[in-house]
Design a protein that fits this description.
Order of helices and strands: EEEHEHEHEHHEE
Strand content: 15-25%
CATH topology: Rossmann fold
Oligomer: single chain
Shape: globular
CATH superfamily: HUPs
Number of domains: 1
CATH architecture: 3-Layer(aba) Sandwich
Strand order of the largest sheet: 5-4-3-6-7-8
Helix content: 25-40%
CATH class: Alpha Beta
Number of helices: 5
Structural class: alpha/beta
Radius of gyration: 18 Å
Length: about 190
């Protein structure tokens, strides 16, 4: 079996690069300047926004909020298949409005934020595409903790992002408890 090396990072000054050292490599950790934060407007993804906001304030970073509308959205029973286009348009308008509200709130906290609203069936790959296009230094994403058949059939968006992303990914285990960005967060995390 291989050995696992753990590193401890003490943040002394956010403007200075931090170093992680182990016996095999010396890796420079630069403060992230562009943070991509996927959001589906669930309480879980709101937790990721809180953590991304804290990081952006600490490192003077820009946050890119990403929301992906599925190409083939699950239609509610009240929507006819013949009105699918209208329904998809409503999803985009609603997402745009909600993202603008988030950007306004982040701006009031002193965080620069941008929005990326897309349409795709492979949510994870679209998140990675946006991160690459925006030259992100970090992706902050929440794992919804799906298990059993749902995970087997649909997979984990967070897991796929971790495996495919070109930049570091901070995966937060969702707790469902939303806090303000000024309060200490109780979100468990692991960096990939």
């Amino acid at each position: 079996m291989g050995s696992i090396h753990f590193a401890r990072i003490g943040i002394r000054n956010p403007s200075e690069p931090q170093w992680i050292e182990n016996r095999k490599a010396r890796v420079e950790m630069l403060p992230p300047k562009r943070i991509v934060c996927p959001i589906d407007f669930s309480d879980y993804s709101q937790e990721a926004v809180i953590v991304a906001t804290d990081l952006a304030l600490l490192f003077h970073s820009t946050i890119c909020l990403v929301h992906i509308v599925p190409v083939l959205p699950k239609l509610p029973a009240s929507v006819s298949i013949f009105k699918e286009g209208e329904y998809e348009g409503q999803l985009h308008e609603d997402a745009k409005r909600r993202l603008e509200e988030l950007v306004k709130g982040l701006s009031q906290k002193g965080v620069t934020a941008e929005v990326s609203l897309g349409t795709a069936n492979d949510i994870a790959m679209e998140i990675v595409r946006v991160a690459e296009h925006d030259q992100a230094d970090l992706i902050v994403i929440t794992s919804h903790g799906t298990t059993g058949w749902n995970r087997f059939v649909f997979g984990s968006v967070a897991e796929k992002v971790v495996h495919v992303a070109h930049c570091p990914v901070l995966v937060l285990r969702a707790t469902g408890e939303t806090k303000s960005a000024s309060e200490p967060s109780k979100v468990a995390s692991s960096a990939a």
